């Protein structure tokens, strides 16, 4: 259960360093209830045991009441434990709920409300900073799904966050691009921006701003490309990736799917502009841009799919002996047969490559319990690889198979939900009921969840 919810490597939960940075000292009951609910839900899903699920629901309801009580308290609403509980509740919904995203969305919005109440004073320790980043990541996905801009208070808080973040870290470098992409999509969908050249220019600027965030990053953020000789069934194309850490893999895929937002917009805006009479775009540079944008989309999709085999334990976490370019440390080993599989364990290094917080917080004694969401954030990147307009039937079938495997093998219900969403989207596309949009809707129309059988 701790693997699904919090990282308790060091310091010990009872230590002075931990107590000083957690507002309720030690292990608050609100967190104990939430983690127990989350763990029981995951076990119930993996073993398909209704008793575990029922017991998890009881703990969830207790945790929900405790969280709601804390939210209405002017003091407790600002506690780290309250925000952590709200984030864990959203994880519970991701784990147990394979029918609707509404409950997950409500918890994400609750977390956003809490970081607004906490204000600029929340950026005082590593735990708070990491929880803010986690809440912002979830809120961004929620806004993409709803076609909404990020709230104004997020823009204000990010200015304060930037004072504490490492300016060289790829996560911090890419954050403005993500925010800009979410807001641009919302402005297009809501008719605030409709001029096609303006849309293309803004999307291109955002992509230029964010595409090179790994250029000066350390080797720990990189990955190895391994050619598949055809005998590995879990590999989609002719190659796969090997990452040293789950953080490097999820961060890379985060950058990829956000860039896919932008290139879908660029490509669709150009196609629409070319089809008008007279054409909106007449310069040869736009023809070149259309080609480059389309090629970029295929590359980003391919790279996301190349990360799947390692996440699903279909390959070892080391390079094959014939292509290994660096010496293998003693602790580098392949997954053992029968070993429990988690989406973040098939990596040589399970810790984050480099703290995204400024050096003043980066000492080992400040390594506090933080939410570990890698098993959940991977879902959206995989879904995007199947939902982008350039996806082929073959790639969509691979995505569907992958999401179904995550649901059954790793016990994450939201994977089944997204698989159903992709099936619904494919059906709509086949009967030409999905309208052509500059900013495409990646999820099916409103109410699609009610049609699940």
Describe the protein in words.
With 453 residues, the protein is mainly alpha-helical. The protein folds into 2 domains: 1-151, no CATH class; 165-446, no CATH class. 57% of the residues lie in helices and 2% in strands. The protein contains 16 helices and 2 strands. Helix 9 (170-189) packs parallel to helix 11. The two termini are 31 Å apart. It holds the Pfam family Fungal_trans_2. InterPro entries: DHMBA_Reg_Transcription_Factor, Fun_TF.
What characteristics describe this protein?
single chain; 16 helices; 2 domains; 453 residues; 57% helix; disordered N terminus; two-stranded antiparallel ribbon; globular; mainly alpha
| Percent helix | 55-70%
Category from helices, strands and their pairing: mainly alpha
Per DSSP E runs of 2 or more residues, the count of β-strands stands at: 2
Specify the biggest β-sheet: 2 strands, antiparallel
Low-confidence stretches: 1-13, 21-25, 322-338, 355-375
Shape: globular
Q: Main sheet: which strands, in order across?
A: 1-2
Rounded to the nearest angstrom, the radius of gyration is 22 Å
Question: How much strand?
Answer: under 5%
**Mean pLDDT, as a whole number?**
83
Secondary-structure element sequence?
HHHHHHHHHHEEHHHHHH
Cα distance spanning the termini: 31 Å
Kindly give the count of domains. Answer: 2
Total count of helical runs of at least 4 residues:
16
